[in-house]
Design goal:
about 100 residues; YaeB-like fold
């Protein structure tokens, strides 16, 4: 199974990496590495992680206050959000409806 990003999740990831890069020379790379590791854990054992709502699951990122929100599709894992823990709950819900177009 391979991961596939919702376009808005991909943008969130890039924005967060940039945010951390601006705060420390290697912090952006460390953040990206932790996100990729969490995605790798979700891909390796997709059914393991907590169901957040409906068929959306959440894999918590180590070290940084983020979570990967995803759904298990027929042939891939759809990453719906790279969600900061303090972000407004549910801001990503419209992306679930968009997934048929991705």
């Amino acid at each position: 199974m391979t991961p596939q990003f919702h376009p808005e999740a991909e943008a969130e990831f890039a924005e967060a990496v940039l945010f951390y890069q601006e705060r420390g020379r290697t912090l952006g790379q460390r953040f990206a590495s932790e996100i990729r590791a969490a995605i790798g854990r979700a891909v390796a054992t997709p059914g393991r992680w907590r169901v957040l709502e409906g068929d959306v699951r959440q894999c918590v990122v180590r070290v940084f206050p983020y979570a990967i929100l995803y759904t298990i599709e027929t042939d891939h894992l759809l990453i719906l959000a790279i969600k900061h823990g303090k972000r407004q709950p549910g801001y990503w819900r419209h992306r679930v409806k968009d997934r048929a177009d991705i």
